[in-house]
Amino acid sequence: MSGDWANKFGYYDMCLREEYHYSSVMIRQNPMTFFYGFCHTNICEADDFNQPDAQEIIKDKLGSSIVSQMLPINLGSASYLFANPVTHYPDFSVGAYSAVIIIFILFCLGLIDPYKRLLDALTNSEIKKPKGIIGDFSLIENYKKLMNLKTIDPNLAIFNGVRAIAFMMVVYGHSSLLIIQATFQTELLVALQSQRAIITVDMLYSVDIFFWLGGFFMAFVMCETKRAKALGKNPASLFLVILHRLLRIWPCYIICIMINSYILPYLGGGPRWWSAMNYTDCAAGAFRNLLFIDNFFHDWDLCFGWGWYLTSDIQLFIICLIPMTCYALGYKRISKYLITGMIISSVIYGIVLCFQYDFLIPAKVTGNQDFYYTYYVNSLARAPPYFFGLLMGMLYREFKQKEENCFLGLLHEKAKDPKFRLLFQITCYLLGFGIISWLVFGWKSAYLSPDPTYWSYWFQHLYSALCRLTFVFGVACLCLPNMIGIYDIFNRKAMNNSIFKFTAKISFACYLIHYMVLLILNYTFYITPTYITQDVIQLFVGCTVITMVAGVFLTLLVEMPFGTLQVKIIDSITKPRKQKQQVLLEQ
């Protein structure tokens, strides 16, 4: 009833029905980790195997066994951690009770308005639109807003598809990653030479798309004439801009961290579930995440590990307030030069890191232990797509405001000529799809080649530093025709369908939730998943559907209500000052 090989868990239920003990063990020797499940008599428990004398006996026996010679690690020097998956659950702490109470209160607030409407309907009374906090949290009112899929700016219709596809890339990439971490290592070594491994690595570009979108919409919003003038008159209002950003992120972020740390451990079971607790542990404290400084600590005490994106996004947002302030003060050309310099500087910084730490093409860099903290979550190293998006957002806002000598405005005027219009479309689409295709598939030969210098090391360093900015440049090429008013079936229909528009509206909530859903789906299986396309797609589809359902509730109960409240909070801070200024003008 025990597993017969590494990462196999035997017959878990049968073992327990026969009134034996079942133990799971994690065998770790960098850079590899194996899991194994075995059924044994009631004489011993998992804690007994963790005793020092038992550990020595186990290492001695396994180190001299035939199995040790067949596995790519030394079992005699590996570390062993045994656990009883039946009882390996954390105590239901104050944090868990708090999380349950908060979720219950949010549901109650959301259901007050539907309940009142139901009572009014039963008593034939007039159904009134709710006001105040009841209206802010009303599931009905927020659902109406959520389902309003009208395209506000037809020139940005393609962005709905870009955001939705980027989210799906995140889910697919993490689905593959979790299966890679849990599957049979011997089979994995073969699978990593396949096309699906290459596609998995390509999903890393999804975060760069989000960075590009973040920079774009930051500039698009802040360069609006009224906002820019208000900021120019009172630069101190930058603190309100930062507060507005934080209040938009914090509510959903706090709720999801609490669910991940205190609720998620009780939502799964089975021989493998205990190993998922590595993702729910928050030993170093959530304050690092909530202060957006978690990438400053290189201690691997990760709390809500996929939240690093929000940390980098906030840090880059604050950095970009410098050129935005210059723009608001009237130094528009200087701000553009400054952003251009920021792009060049961050690219050079990334190149230096890649040469210094020997970062090669993406698939070959994942085994480099310096890569995660030195580059992957390093905000300055990941900055080029964000800064590039900032510059594009600034140019697009000037185009929408019909400012003179605007680059996009000049393209728009030239696009009135049918010949130029067609040529511009073909050029942008060929360039965009060509760049993306080359970055997705072009490095396949260099990755699969047994010769590590198939691509020279210096070229691989440059590729590693430039590929992310180049990828979002390709995405920008695809968006450019739509941005200047050239509409076609691709940017107005295919990339702006109802599914993409809906997914784009809930993408923030879905990003926070998706990894928790993946943990439940992946680690509650009794049978070890196999890294084949079918298993990856099944996990991806299941996770996407469940995540979107959960994301709707998080959006309705947390993101939208607190989004309304934060607007009221900002207004309450700024209105007294406006009223005081109005009184002085009247006097």
Automatic annotation (TrEMBL):
Protein name: Acyltransferase 3 domain-containing protein
InterPro entries xrefs: Acyl_transf_3_dom (IPR002656), O2_lipid_transport_reg (IPR052728)
Keyword Ion transport: no
Transmembrane segments: 94-112, 164-184, 204-225, 246-267, 306-330, 337-359, 379-399, 420-441, 461-490, 502-525, 537-558
Keywords, sorted A to Z: Membrane, Transmembrane, Transmembrane helix
Any one Gene Ontology molecular-function term assigned to this protein's record: acyltransferase activity, transferring groups other than amino-acyl groups
Pfam families the record matches: Acyl_transf_3
Annotated organism of origin: Paramecium tetraurelia
Taxonomic lineage from the root: Eukaryota, Sar, Alveolata, Ciliophora, Intramacronucleata
Superkingdom of the source species: Eukaryota
Domain Acyltransferase: from-to ranges: 159-554
